[in-house]
Specification:
mainly beta, five-stranded antiparallel sheet
Length: 775
């Protein structure tokens, strides 16, 4: 009873507080009754089965009035029809002890109009907070009674916690004064299970489970079922039987034909009965005419004939390549059109069968070497003359500026004057010639840079001499007392000094004194004419006997000390001895220089021209090696040109000479590299006429004549002109040597004129330079 009193006390305090707040309007019922078990307990009723003793039941019904407020208008005097009705279900909580049960039943109703005014009515908010406190107190009391040590001696069963709003399956909304249920639940307090997707409107929802209408199935009745049993040969998809391969019909019980015979036949027990002209398992193949006569394959009603046959049914023999459209097929063989040949008429024929001088390739003749033309009927030229000439009967007639068998070589000016080779249009001149056309004579070794080259001859600078200016001159020409060798005087016996002007002393004083005006001034200890009054030098090198201080050499040795080899017959006095051999003077030959070389005879000139002259002479009957021909311009001290000729020669043409010049010609006999005394003659070349005469700017009555001056020094130039057929009408005009053009006037129209130009110097006249032209 102590516990029961405590509970009642708590409730009284809470209710008094609520009364004081002015929120409880009237108490509808307050009774004590015995709770009987319900036959149909609702899903949201939590019940603890009572004992036979009658429990104490507190059944409280509260009506909450909401005070008026300026911010919230609530109709508290609602008509009777608007009286708050008890809910269809009520929450009943039972607490059980060993002697008595205490049952608290609460139903608290708040008008819907007050839900939205909770923020503006602090009293209403306070009321709701206090109701929560009441629930917590009851829950605490329940916990205390359920421990077995409190108000109840028996074990407590049933719902022990505070019942949450919306049955724990939703949230209570003050805005709508109702529960907002979680997915899967519905009803005023979210206590009714919901069905998925509302059964898609294809069934009824019973306790959260869809009971589908006929023709539908599935958790949400979304799957359509088939009206017939599809059997094991199909699957039911979206209410339709989808047959497996090889089956057909509404329930897939019939055997199917391949590709449904493609609509070209009837399906009978799985086999196609094809319509004409179709055949095949699925009537997909066309029948070929005459079955292609077994000469081909039937594909889609068309015969693909074997090689060698053709036609719609392969009954005809075919020709290779269908004759390539260049002939007609007769009995499997091609009858080719003109111009074609071969099994399939694919080969072009060649004109005249290439005349047997080539081979036919694709209708074109590939000619053999040496032939050309469409039918190889023409003789070919080497390399087709390189397009630099015309091919005439197999030979090239080259264009101007080209030469050679195939016109591949560029020609050289004036054919290099036969003084060189033509290489790629440039003259490679022979030794002794230079210039664009080898017309200029060169000088030996280019005069070694020690002289000027004039007309092929070196004009040496002072101090130099020789054909190529390679020799040094000797001072005072050795006073004619010796020979000049490489710029040094080799003095004759009895003379000495750099220019051989001093007389020598006997035996050079034997090296034992010095020579003064041909007399030995001996050193101390020596005496005698040649200071030889002592022992012989080097004891005569054991090649002689020393007598009175002088060596008497053995045969074959010479010299003061007999160390030098001697020469036979002392070179006959016509040479000098060197290392036992005679070096003969000019004009002498032989082992001992005892033989004289003759002077050539019959030296004369012929065919004298402005730049050349022919030299002639008599032959010799004695043995000799050849001829030495030397030419020198008399205006020049040096610069002579020397030519060696074979012994059988008796004439030679000198070319490359200067017009109007005087030349000295020497001819000597050569033997053992020694030249004999020469025959000497002089000759003058003729003066030359004006060069490169041209006629320009010709009209019916005038013309301009131009030329280059002659190379020779001349006094003047004469131009003579007139009609070619009437010499009596010729005119002559004398011009100065510096003039290079003359204007002809008063000419007759449509007339051929002849021009002759000559040069004059003293009583000499050049040959004419001739030109013709037409007005």
């Amino acid at each position: 009873m102590g516990t029961r009193g405590m509970v009642l006390g708590c409730l009284a305090v809470i209710l008094l507080q609520l009364v004081d707040a002015g929120l409880i309007k009237k108490l509808i019922r307050h009774q004590r009754e015995t709770l009987a078990p319900l036959a149909n307990t609702q899903a949201n009723v939590n019940t603890t089965i009572p004992s036979s003793n009658r429990p104490v039941v507190f059944n409280h019904v509260y009506r909450i009035n909401v005070p008026a407020s300026a911010l919230c208008s609530v109709d508290l005097e609602a008509p009777a029809s608007s009286e708050l009705q008890p809910p269809t279900t009520q929450t009943t909580e039972h607490t059980l002890d060993s002697d008595n049960q205490i049952v608290f039943t609460h139903r608290i109703t708040i008008p819907r109009q007050a839900c939205a005014c909770s923020d503006s009515l602090p009293d209403l908010k306070e009321l709701m907070n206090r109701l929560e406190v009441l629930e917590e107190e009851v829950s605490t009391l329940r916990d205390q009674c359920s421990t077995g040590t409190g108000c109840c001696g028996a074990h407590v069963t049933g719902e022990l916690g505070t019942k949450p709003y919306c049955n724990g399956h939703g949230n209570y909304s003050i805005d709508t004064c109702s529960c907002i249920c979680e997915p899967g639940w519905k009803g005023p307090n979210c206590s009714v299970p919901a069905c998925p997707n509302d059964c898609q409107d294809q069934g009824r929802c019973v306790d959260g489970v869809c009971v589908c209408f006929d023709s539908f199935t599935g958790p949400d009745c979304s799957v359509a079922t088939c009206l017939v049993d599809c059997g094991e040969n199909a699957k039911c998809i979206d209410g339709v039987c989808v047959c497996a391969d090889g089956y057909t019909g509404e329930d897939c019980s019939q055997t199917a034909c391949l590709n449904n015979c493609l609509g070209r036949g009837r399906c009978v027990d799985g086999d196609c009965i094809c319509k004409d002209p179709w055949t095949g398992l699925d009537c997909s193949e066309l029948i070929c005419p005459n079955d292609c006569y077994d000469r081909g394959r039937c594909i889609n009603g068309t015969c693909h004939c074997d090689k060698g046959f053709t036609g719609e049914d392969c009954s005809e023999r075919s020709c290779p390549g269908n004759c390539n459209g260049r002939g007609i097929c007769v009995g499997g063989r091609c009858m080719c059109s003109t111009g074609y040949t071969g099994d399939d008429c694919s080969t072009l024929t060649c004109p005249n069968n290439c005349n047997g001088r080539g081979r036919c390739s694709n209708g074109m003749c590939i000619c053999n070497s040496g032939y050309q033309g469409e039918d190889c009927g023409q003789l070919a030229c080497l390399n087709n003359c390189n397009n630099r000439g015309q091919c005439i009967n197999g030979q090239c007639t080259c264009d101007i500026g080209f030469q050679g068998e195939d016109c591949s070589e560029i020609s050289c000016p004036n054919g290099c004057l036969n003084r060189g080779r033509c290489v790629n249009g440039q003259c490679v001149c022979q030794e002794g010639f230079t210039g664009e056309d080898c017309s200029i004579r060169t000088c030996p070794s280019d005069c070694y840079g020690q002289g000027n080259c004039v007309d092929g001859s070196c004009v040496c600078y002072a101090g130099f001499t020789g054909q190529d200016c390679s020799e040094l001159t000797c001072p005072n020409n050795c006073h004619n007392n010796g020979r000049c060798v490489y710029g040094q005087c080799i003095c004759n016996e009895g003379f000495i000094g750099t220019d051989c002007r001093d007389k020598t002393c006997p035996n050079f004083c034997m090296g034992r004194g010095h020579c003064v005006d041909g007399q030995c001034v001996c050193w101390e200890g020596y005496g005698g004419e040649d200071c030889s009054e002592l022992a012989c030098p080097r004891n005569c090198n054991n090649k002689g006997r020393c007598i009175g201080g002088r060596c008497h050499c053995d045969e074959g040795f010479v010299g003061d000390d007999c160390r030098q080899l001697g020469c036979p017959n002392h070179c006959s006095g016509q040479g000098h001895c060197k290392d036992g051999q005679c070096i003969c003077d000019e004009g002498y030959v032989g082992e001992d220089c005892s033989e004289d070389l003759p002077t050539p005879e019959g030296l004369k000139f012929r065919s004298v021209k402005d730049t050349s002259v022919e030299v002639l002479w008599d032959p010799l009957s004695i043995p000799f090696d050849g001829w030495n021909l030397t030419v020198r311009n008399t205006k020049e001290e040096n610069g002579q040109i020397q030519t060696t000729l074979p012994r059988e020669k008796t004439r030679f043409e000198l070319s490359g000479l200067g017009p109007g010049q005087e030349y000295e010609v020497k001819l000597g006999v050569l033997k053992n590299n020694t030249s004999g005394p020469p025959a000497v003659k002089k000759i003058k070349t003729k003066i030359d006429a004006p060069r490169q005469v041209e006629v320009r700017d010709v009209t019916d009555s005038s013309a301009l004549v131009t030329w280059f001056p002659p190379e020779a020094r001349v006094d003047g130039v004469t131009i003579s002109y007139g009609p070619s057929n009437n010499p009596s009408e010729r005119h002559s005009v004398d011009l100065s040597p510096t003039d290079t053009q003359y204007h002809l006037t008063n000419l007759k129209p449509n007339t051929e004129y002849r021009i002759s130009m000559t040069s004059k110097r003293g009583g000499l006249t050049s040959g004419p330079a001739l030109r013709t032209f037409n007005t």
